[in-house]
Amino acid sequence: MSILLVWLTLASFLSWFTSTLAAAGSPLLLIPLVNLLLGSGAVAPVITLGMLLGNSQRIFLFWSDINWKITLWYLPGAILGAILGAYLFTQMNIEWLQLVIGLFLILSVVGFGFKKQESNFRIATWYFLPAGFLYSFISGLIGSSGPLLNPLYLKYGLVKEEMIATKAANVVVIHIVKIVIYLAFGAMTPQYLGYGLAIGLAAAPGNLLGRYVLRSMSNQHFRQLALATMAITGILMLWQQRELLQFMH
User: Fold this and answer.
1) How far apart are the C-alpha atoms of 149 and 153, rounded to whole Å?
2) How many other CB atoms are found less than 10 A from the CB of residue 128?
3) For residue 137, how far is the Cα from the chain centroid?
4) 177 with 79: CB under 8 angstroms?
5) Quick one: residue 79, left, alpha or beta (phi over 0 = left, psi -120 to 50 = alpha)?
6) pTM: predicted TM-score of the whole model, two decimal places
7) Residue 67's pLDDT band (boundaries 50, 70, 90)?
């Protein structure tokens, strides 16, 4: 157990540090590692608890940068989606969702094309209501949806601290709802609680170091790193579902 905790804490520190610079990616190492060490049934509850603690730290660190207008539109749909997704997680296993998310992320990066100039098109704030439902529903099923909504945040015009802070504020409530559901239906065991706490505590130094480095980054570099993380996440999700792809072929 001690060796597992060492691996999880090291991976958590690295994941939260890099995800602070790219607005995503904390589950990138953690989900495959938890799946490998603890099994697929542990992924959603363990990752959810770790995400709750890590994002709570970010709210504290970036409080003044939160876009509350987005959050107020986001939360109603997100809470409903989290309840439904977390409940369905306790009843079924939908592996093909990671395949869909992976394809979406890759296509989104292709759409952005890593252009240096930002698009003139801007998203209306109310878009975050249905987007919050979709994101939290999928997150409830598989533990985390990764950078699924990053294209929406980027199109809206959020970058750097404002994007990190707003995303953290949006997902914390969702993770609380999911944990309550997992506890109520027996998906969150004492062992999973311990591993989730280890991930969350190790996130603190990663978030602090990430905030320090983020200050020196330009908006353009942040945007490019966010897009690169989306592409890597999408490719890894497709790789993890390669057996399903072969079956479909």
Assistant:
1) 6
2) 28
3) 13
4) yes
5) alpha
6) 0.80
7) very high
